[in-house]
């Protein structure tokens, strides 16, 4: 008979990419995870993981079993959580993914307060700016700023943010202050590489698109902010990155007469299963913590 700990080991190895990483995720010794996986293979009479010197990959049998394994583990977890929730508390594992910088600045602090109120929840938070496969990688939900187009996911609004052009006072004193969209052609721009480099500004006739000349392209919002603080150029960032720098004057809003398209923070979860009570409670908590309008925009008013 298959054991749950063997199925758990298989899922962890498949998602983490190695036995060592799976052991760290499960809080177990590497030898324990390896033994559980080997026992599962003996039980089903098939090799489930192909081991090479560089990587691990599921075999065809492993691919077939892991779908059922995830479903079984989720059913067990949900059943355990339901029993606890009937007693009026929230409990059990919850796995989330989110962007690195927003996670460090805003998501993490809000979650810490939530977990202090619900100590029986075991939350795993993976911060990564790549667009993880929420449906396939075993996440209960993902949090992202920007569009989510995966039709396998239910997407819900979590918070909004203005997006402002900013630069350091020193840069503007040296290079001059652009006052119109046309004058953005002469600036040095700090651009984000993970999406289109276009800067989009809605107006009465539609959307004006500016394609500035880049002095730096980088895939991290905090590095973009730091580059602007260093006087490197003008950048376009959500206010959740820069509200404190604007408040203390270390960055200045470059007002060109029209404001760029805003940013939206979403939470998304697989469409083939209903969100658990603990996920619903966390989403409601985050909406309250961030506020409407969000506190990073209120700080600028």
UniProtKB/TrEMBL annotation:
Residues 2-59 form the HTH lysR-type domain. It comes from the Bacteria. Pfam families: HTH_1, LysR_substrate. InterPro entries: LysR-type_TF_proteobact-type (IPR058163), LysR_HTH_N (IPR000847), LysR_subst-bd (IPR005119), WH-like_DNA-bd_sf (IPR036388), WH_DNA-bd_sf (IPR036390). Keywords: DNA-binding, Transcription, Transcription regulation. The keyword Transcription applies. PROSITE patterns: HTH_LYSR. Transmembrane segments: none annotated. Gene3D superfamilies: 3.40.190.290, Winged helix-like DNA-binding domain superfamily/Winged helix DNA-binding domain (1.10.10.10). Belongs to the LysR transcriptional regulatory family. PANTHER family: HTH-TYPE TRANSCRIPTIONAL REGULATOR, TRANSCRIPTIONAL REGULATOR-RELATED. This is LysR family transcriptional regulator. It comes from Sphingomonas citri. The lineage of its organism: Bacteria, Pseudomonadati, Pseudomonadota, Alphaproteobacteria, Sphingomonadales.
């Amino acid at each position: 008979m298959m054991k749950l700990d063997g199925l758990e080991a298989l899922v962890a190895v498949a998602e983490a990419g190695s036995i060592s990483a799976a052991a760290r995720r499960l809080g177990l010794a590497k030898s324990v995870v390896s033994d559980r996986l080997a026992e599962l293979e003996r039980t089903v009479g098939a090799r489930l993981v192909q081991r090479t010197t560089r990587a691990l990959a599921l075999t065809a049998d492993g691919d077939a079993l892991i779908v059922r394994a995830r479903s079984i583990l989720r059913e067990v977890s949900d059943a355990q959580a339901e029993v606890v929730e009937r007693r009026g508390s929230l409990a059990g594992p919850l796995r989330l993914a989110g962007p690195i910088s927003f996670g460090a600045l805003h998501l993490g602090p809000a979650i810490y307060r939530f977990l202090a109120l619900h100590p029986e929840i075991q939350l795993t938070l993976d911060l990564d700016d790549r667009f993880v496969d929420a449906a396939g990688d075993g996440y209960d939900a993902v949090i992202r700023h920007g569009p989510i187009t995966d039709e396998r996911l239910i997407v819900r609004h979590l918070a909004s943010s203005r997006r402002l052009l900013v630069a350091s006072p020193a840069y503007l004193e040296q290079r001059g202050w652009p006052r119109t969209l046309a004058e953005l052609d002469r600036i040095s721009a700090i651009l984000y590489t993970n999406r289109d480099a276009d800067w989009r500004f809605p107006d009465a006739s539609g959307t004006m698109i500016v394609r500035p000349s880049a002095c730096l392209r980088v895939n991290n919002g905090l590095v973009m902010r730091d580059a602007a603080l260093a006087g490197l150029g003008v950048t376009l960032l959500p206010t959740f990155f820069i509200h404190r720098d604007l408040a203390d004057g270390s960055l200045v809003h470059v007002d060109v007469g029209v404001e760029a398209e805003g940013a939206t923070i979403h939470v998304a979860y697989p469409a083939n299963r209903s969100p658990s009570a603990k996920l619903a409670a966390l989403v409601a908590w985050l909406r309250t913590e961030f506020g409407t309008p969000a506190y990073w925009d209120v700080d600028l008013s």
